[in-house]
Amino acid sequence: MDDTEITDLPLENLCLSGIGSEDLGLGWLWRCSTRLRKLQLRSCEGIGDRGDFSSFVKCLKGLQEIELRACRTIVDGLLLKFAENCVSLNSLLVYDGGSREGLLQFITHCKCTLQKLDLRLPLDLDNDHLLTVANKFHILNTLRLRSCCLVTGDGLKALVRALSYKLEEIALINCDVVERELGLLTSLSQCLKRLRKLDLSYNEMLVDKEFVSMIVSCGGLVEVKLRGCGGLGSVSLVSMTKNCKNLESVDIVNCRGIEAAAVEFLVLNLPRLRQVQVEECKLSDVAKNWVSEKFIEVVIG
Asked: A single GO CC term, please (predicted)?
């Protein structure tokens, strides 16, 4: 397409999937998308220009949010271009791709000030990345880590201490450090002064003692996700209900140790609750009547 035909598209959000390594013809799209604010690439092996980034970089300056999902072969190259050209970026998500060095180079050299970082890099993310994040992104308020097996408690504690008055959301999903290092959650909670959202989903061996010790220091929480935490029992839910009176949303699907009586206690004693995700069999008649009267959304898991 001739650039004179379209000089600027009114696109602010763009999601593309399945671009092959040999695909051509997208150069015009990148050149004409200078208004982009959010870019999503899914299962892509190229950018539609056979590795020529000269057109692609035209759309990067104003980007505020980027999501890369399963783009393994091009993640490192993309991260390099983001570091060089994205000055407005505040949110980055990378799932299933990227090398240790590629991510480290992005964090070290990027020109933006990230506020949200969401990573699922099971083989590559380690303490060096966390320490660099702590030193680079001083206003980071959201950190989400999934299946990151090389991260240790020392790395997490150093990062949380550095960002203690900024972090409002933290997710440690299926991160074995949560189960491996006793007392870690308690140590983290003592530094998370402004925490509002907590996601510990799929830590199957997380036990009541660890969770309860953490939750007593997290009275400001409005959202908690414990999906798939099969080691937690009713005592965790009761403690959370007593200590976190501002909770609006709770996910306790596949928490086999949590009984119906504890779920009933939760819905009856959280005045701001607006949504609960749970199995239908754990909703007593009393709980069902209460959520109906209070217009609490129930998402059946």
From this structure: SCF ubiquitin ligase complex
Question: Which helix (H) or strand (E) element contains residue 261?
Answer: helix 260-269
Confidence (pLDDT) at 177:
94
- 54 vs 276: CA distance, rounded Å: 48
Q: What is the Cβ-side half-sphere exposure of residue 55, based on CA atoms within 13 angstroms?
A: 17
What class does CATH assign to 200-206+220-301?
alpha beta
Average pLDDT over residues 40-66: 94
Q: Please list the residues that pair with 146 across neighbouring strands.
A: 173
Structure tokens at 204: 């199957």
Model pTM score: 0.94
Task: Report, in angstroms and rounded to the nearest whole number, the Rg of the chain calculated over CA atoms.
Answer: 22
SS3 231: coil
Residues 102/75, Cβ–Cβ less than 8 Å: yes
Query: H or E segment at 66?
Result: strand 65-69
- Six-digit token pair at 165? 């008055």
Domain chopping of the chain, boundaries: 200-206+220-301
Cβ contacts of 67 within 8 Å, gap of 6 or more: 38, 39, 40, 41, 42, 93, 95
Q: Phi first, then psi: give them for residue 119, nearest 5 degrees.
A: -130, 135
Tokens for 168, please give them: 């409002």
